[in-house]
Amino acid sequence: MTAIPRQFEQGPLDSASVSDASTSAGLTAQHDWSIEQSRELYGVGRWGLGYFDIDPRGNLSVTAPTPAGHRSVSMAAIIDGLHQRELNMPVMLRIENLIDDRVVQLNSAFAEAIAQLEYRGAYRSVFPIKVNQQHHVIDSIGRSGQRFNHGLEAGSKAELLVAISSVRSKESLIVCNGYKDEEFVDLGFTACQLGYKCFFVLETLDELDLIIRRSKHFEIRPLIGARVKLMTKVEGHWAGDSGDRSLFGLTTVELISAVDALQASDMLDCFQMLHFHLGSQLTNIRNVRDGLKEACRFYIGLVQDGVPLGYLDLGGGLAVDYDGTASTQPHSRNYELREYACDIVETVMESLDANGIDHPVLVTESGRWTAAPMSVLIFNILAVTNFDPDELPNPLPHDLCDPVLEMVKTLNDLGKRRLQESYNDVLYYRTQVRDLFKAGKVTLRERALGENLYLKIVSEIVARSQTLERVPSELVELSESLSDIYYGNFSVFQSLPDAWAIEQVFPVMPLHRLDEKPQRKAIIADLTCDCDGKLDRFIGAEGEIERTLQLHRLKSGQPYYMGVFLVGAYQETLGDLHNLFGDNNVASIRVTETGDVEFVEEVCGDTIAEVLSYVEHDPAKMLARFRDKAEMAVREQRISVQTRQQMIQLFRASLQGYTYFEE
Fold first, then answer.
1. pLDDT digit string, tens, across residues 481-497
2. Distance CA 206, CA 203 (A)
3. Whole-prediction pTM value?
């Protein structure tokens, strides 16, 4: 087992130097490997959405829509720009063009479906702020969505403040979900006073009395919606958002009580929106249709009961095909955007036309689908631990214990016995060596020899098993146990919390050297001191989940950059401060009409002082205490005054430094 230290400078990376480095490594790697093979291995053609691909020099490229057409730029050029601006790794890269394009695609798909099917209502898109609350993201959505009257959904008072200050069109919707206190409701009424269409969606029946009471105070007829619990169940991580036991919304009995209460208050005309939500990632279009059909029955029933509804809000659910399989797997979906829009429009028409009811304004809160593609987490690899055996000593030492001698014999007889039998034997002998070591009957060097023999035998077994027609499952898992550990300069808990919390699988791949054959299988560990701080679930060549990722060997003097894709939804907002690793650097870029990269916004990640203040430490007091300790050391003649000054300078500089690995 060998640990490879970080022996390379983390300097700028440009496309020319990457290509030259690949060539200097020898022609063999390029002759037996092609860019098309890398494209297939990492699945970029399946999940890349046309935004990501590999250029002829073996670098990942970004293809972005611009007013002058699509323009492609190399990720190597982007990384070079990050270094020039002293934005150290890790960096969350946001590509503005992509979120603009998603907003356009979403609204265009529904406009086309409405025109094609002759739907007599309109469509309004709404972005749930909780998906990504970052200012630049909300601002980009507001700018690109203004011509579509793209609105915002708020689930808290803080998000409502964002919505009120950010929405640009008076025709845009502000949808207030979540539990509401008086201040929340009053903020909504201020939006109404400004002329915005702000809907109060009932999550509990108790909220209705508050809304009625405050409406009288403001002398405003409120726009009221109700979230209804459907019996339709969906699959996947967010199944709890659907069914009778869903956490949010009104039961059928509560819905009727709300109608009666509004009727009694002469405010039934305020009840204008029916809302439901089946889940954040609906993988099966059948679930969408089934849930919508049931919701339409509620809509029809309410209208027949005298409720003047005019809006039907389907909530979120438009899924992201993370693994590129176009299936009902948890990280995929079996439908396209156009099919999604057409099915919704058609289902509503069929249900309502049969009952002579006007077509409502359709509303969707498609946050994940809108935001996910725009963000890429970029980080560098700092070091590698591999489990390759060392060369055996020749000759072997005398007086070896019996288990080690048996391991030598197993190695020599590998070609004469079944691989499974050899593995069973070597596993047994290694256990014996370890037990003897714990009992003090084997030296440290002899145990190390036994461990090395085990690695050598197992490596041979794995190599030979590749020629078998049927590989025993135990030997398949054995290959994974020998995989390398690549240490990445990032925190899973801060930047990719869903990968840890719900085993979300994101596309992961190198950003360069893609014209070379990757020769190592690895998992990726982060900087945290936590066994869960790792990526060990990857998208395989056929879309299946693999426990290792094929990567290139590190080269001395050269950086190795990785990217995690489709992370624009939730990841930036759910991160925590595990090991006090704070927010990472952020860069928002725009690809121009000329194919250049424009750095629109740069946000420096948290300093150590800022992170410490989040957990109630006072950096100034910490520095003062350290200064006192250093001064005491001078009095005790442990250090000189000059050393004291150097120590204080280091402490002060560290407080202002990046929480991640720095040069």
1. 899 999 999 999 999 99
2. 9
3. 0.91
